[in-house]
User: Which sequence fits this backbone?
């Protein structure tokens, strides 16, 4: 799994292409009848705003990590494993990256509540305007996506908080219990 994460982190275009293809497959599953090409094209065109946001965030994170994609991938990998950098420059880059990500997630609870309300509203409107298959599909998508968003968001937030706490420590070495820490935090 680590190789997949590194590959997707290194090649942002692959991550975006897979996202568009997965979304297109879901649309074709829920609403059969349109050609695959037209669905992929419409999905890609409607995803442009999200792609621009991802690219802007990536540019800021590269700058925080020292300017390169390789540095960002390395820091992101260390962050997932809970490894605190020893090198002073890497520590400073990790500190900047963690601060940036924590700042960006400061309204995550409100955003998740809004996302849940939006998904539930779309599911309810689908139940009123579409067939049973689409309603069941949107209901399943709502439950699975929201559960994944909350679980993954909490895991990432705990990892960021644990890394911030470790970086604010003595500044010389990582405590041994942080290496490979999958939960991301201990109090």
Assistant:
């Amino acid at each position: 799994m680590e190789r997949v994460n590194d590959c997707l982190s290194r090649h942002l275009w692959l991550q975006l292409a897979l996202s568009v293809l997965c979304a297109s497959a879901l649309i074709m599953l829920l609403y059969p009848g349109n050609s695959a090409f037209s669905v992929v094209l419409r999905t890609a065109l409607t995803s442009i705003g999200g792609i621009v946001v991802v690219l802007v965030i990536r540019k800021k994170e590269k700058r925080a990590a020292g300017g390169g994609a390789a540095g960002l991938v390395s820091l992101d990998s260390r962050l997932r494993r809970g490894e605190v950098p020893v090198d002073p420059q890497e520590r400073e880059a990790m500190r900047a990256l963690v601060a940036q990500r924590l700042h960006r997630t400061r309204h995550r609870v409100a955003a998740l509540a809004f996302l849940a309300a939006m998904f539930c509203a779309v599911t309810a409107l689908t139940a009123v305007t579409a067939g049973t298959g689409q309603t069941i599909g949107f209901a399943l998508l709502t439950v699975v996506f929201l559960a994944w968003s909350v679980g993954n968001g909490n895991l990432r937030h705990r990892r960021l908080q644990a890394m911030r706490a470790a970086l604010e420590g003595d500044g010389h070495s990582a405590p041994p219990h942080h290496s490979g820490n999958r939960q991301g935090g201990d109090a």
Remarks:
- The mean pLDDT is 85.
